[in-house]
Amino acid sequence: MIFFLAREQNNMFNLRINGIFLIACSTLLCAISLATTVDYDANAIIINGERRLIMSGAIHYPRSTPQMWPDLLKKAKDGGLDAIETYVFWDLHEPVRRQYDFSEDLDFIKFLKNVQEAGLYAVLRIGPYVCAEWNYGGFPMWLHNLPGIQLRTDNAVFKEEMKIFTTKIVTMCKEAGLFAPQGGPIILAQIENEYGDVISSYGEAGNAYINWCAQMAVSQNVGIPWIMCKQSNAPSPIINTCNGYYCDDFKPNNPKSPKMFTENWIGWFQKWGEKRPHRTAEDSAFSVARFFQNGGVLQNYYMYHGGTNFGRTAGGPYIMTAYDYDAPLDEYGNLNQPKWGHLKKLHAAIKLGEKVLTINATITEKQYGDSVYLKTYANQATGEKFCFLSNAHNSKDAQVDLQQDGKYYVPAWSVSILQDCNKEVFNTAKVEAQTNVYVKKLATELGNTFTWTWTSEPVEDTLQGVGTFNASELLEQKAVTVGASDYLWYMTTVLINDTSTWKNSSLQVNTTGHVLHAYVNGQYIGTQWGTHDKLSFIYEKPISLKQGANIISLLSGTVGHAHYGAFFDMATTGIVGGPVKLIASSNTTTLDLSKSSWSYKVGLNGEAKKFYDPKFSSNGVQWNQVNNVGTGKPMTWYKTSFKTPEGTDPVVLDLIGLTKGEAWINGKSIGRYWPTMVADNNSCSDKCDYRGNYGADKCLSGCGEPSQRFYHVPRSFLNNDTNTNSNTLILFEEMGGNPINVCVKTITIGSICATVGYGKTLEIKCPDGKTFSQIAFASYGNPQGKCGSFQVGVWESSDSASVIENACIGKQSCSVNVTSSTFKINNQGGNDGQLAVQLLCDGSDPEIGRVQKVKNHEKLSLNESGPESEL
Ligand SMILES: *[C@@H]1O[C@H](CO)[C@@H](O)[C@H](O)[C@H]1NC(C)=O
Ligand SMILES: *[C@@H]1O[C@H](CO)[C@@H](O)[C@H](O)[C@H]1NC(C)=O
Ligand SMILES: *[C@@H]1O[C@H](CO)[C@@H](O)[C@H](O)[C@H]1NC(C)=O
Ligand SMILES: *[C@@H]1O[C@H](CO)[C@@H](O)[C@H](O)[C@H]1NC(C)=O
Ligand SMILES: *[C@@H]1O[C@H](CO)[C@@H](O)[C@H](O)[C@H]1NC(C)=O
Ligand SMILES: *[C@@H]1O[C@H](CO)[C@@H](O)[C@H](O)[C@H]1NC(C)=O
Ligand SMILES: *[C@@H]1O[C@H](CO)[C@@H](O)[C@H](O)[C@H]1NC(C)=O
Ligand SMILES: *[C@@H]1O[C@H](CO)[C@@H](O)[C@H](O)[C@H]1NC(C)=O
Ligand SMILES: *[C@@H]1O[C@H](CO)[C@@H](O)[C@H](O)[C@H]1NC(C)=O
Question: What are the residue numbers of the active site?
Answer without folding.
Answer: 194, 263
